[in-house]
Amino acid sequence: MPIKKENRARYPKNWREIADKIRERAGQMCEGSPAFPDCRAENGKPHPVTSSKVVLTVAHLDHTPENCDAANLKAWCQRCHLVYDAPHHAANAAVTRALKKAAANPTIPMFELEEA
Q: What's the number of domains the chain is made of?
């Protein structure tokens, strides 16, 4: 997953080194996620289910880029990473929509935005 420009400062300067160590720990294969525990898609090869080229990513289990403890990091294929992050992405999108709605109409009380 590419790091968004606004989040880059949250990652340590040696993030690439940390991520490389996690991929090495995993043997350049997906470590399997809660949704797909047996996934072992190999980095750079076609994914056995999706056939897309696997780009092994490194996921923060707690979604906190500052927490780079090895126990909080997993090497995952795009499929495992995206499925794991889907609820987190949906929550962030809801907040973004609410903020845009509030900016467009500042007379709407915040409790109405939470229900939207």
A: 1
